[in-house]
Automatic annotation (TrEMBL):
<dbReference type="InterPro" id="IPR029024">
    <property type="entry name" value="TerB-like"/>
</dbReference>
<dbReference type="Pfam" id="PF05099">
    <property type="entry name" value="TerB"/>
</dbReference>
<dbReference type="InterPro" id="IPR007791">
    <property type="entry name" value="DjlA_N"/>
</dbReference>
<feature type="domain" description="Co-chaperone DjlA N-terminal">
    <location>
        <begin position="98"/>
        <end position="222"/>
    </location>
</feature>
<protein>
    <submittedName>
        <fullName>TerB family tellurite resistance protein</fullName>
    </submittedName>
</protein>
């Protein structure tokens, strides 16, 4: 650094002789959940080239840096792994679809859909975000699934149902706190219990739900027992 003198003769801020500067280039944009702002924001994906500077003037390339994600609101930079976190809008849709899938799976495993089971399932799905869900719609979907796949009500549905549950729950589980994962399982348990004790097929479905949500087998058992106890 080189010292300088101000107009009044006092020492001025030192001038930086050598340094580095990064020139950023946009490489894409979109919407993401900004950890700095705590909400959904627009972003730019940036790649950078670093250069040595002499008296603030770029002179020699020093290599590439990034890519990074820059929030359009707070202008902070984050690693690209921040894009793995779903936006609030996407997360809500994932949660809604997960609850809907669990409800259909439990109803499919439970045998002939009783009115109480359908009412409990419809209320659960509406609370998750499908505001216009009705008992009739769920019953029609269960019948259509049985006709399309050859499932038999009241019997284990095998690998096909397990795949459907994992497709809906696997992407969601890493973004849920333990209480959130347990809540989804308990919602399915209450649908199963609406018309009586668990059937073996319902227990199998709920065990699959628990596994997809990364809940250990002992905790699944504990939660299924707790769901039978009136609060």
């Amino acid at each position: 650094m080189l010292p300088g003198r101000g107009r009044n003769g006092h020492a001025a801020r030192p001038v930086r002789l050598l340094g580095t500067r990064t020139a950023w280039t946009p490489a894409g944009d979109g919407e993401f959940f900004c950890p700095g702002c705590g909400g959904d924001r627009n972003f730019q994906r940036l790649t950078g080239r670093r250069r040595f500077t002499l008296l603030g003037v770029p002179v020699l390339p020093r290599g590439e840096t990034g890519p990074v994600v820059e929030c359009a609101a707070c202008r902070r930079h984050f690693g690209t792994d921040v894009l793995d976190h779903p936006t609030t809008t996407r997360f809500s849709a994932m949660l809604r679809d997960a609850v809907h899938t669990v409800a259909l799976a439990v109803l499919s495993a439970g045998g002939t859909c009783s009115r109480t089971s359908l009412e409990t399932a419809a209320a659960t799905v509406r609370a998750a975000g499908y505001d216009d869900c009705t008992e009739e719609q769920l019953n029609a979907l269960v019948e259509a699934l049985a006709a399309d796949t050859g499932r038999v009500h009241g019997r284990p549905c095998g690998a096909g149902l397990a795949i459907e549950l994992h497709e809906a729950l696997d992407p969601l589980a890493p973004h849920l706190a333990p209480a959130g994962r347990e809540s989804i399982l308990l919602q399915g348990a209450r649908i199963a219990l609406a018309d009586g004790p668990y059937t073996p097929a319902e227990r199998e479905v709920l065990a699959t739900v628990g596994a997809a949500l990364t809940i250990c087998a002992d905790d699944v058992t504990r939660l299924l027992v707790s769901a039978r106890t009136p609060s």
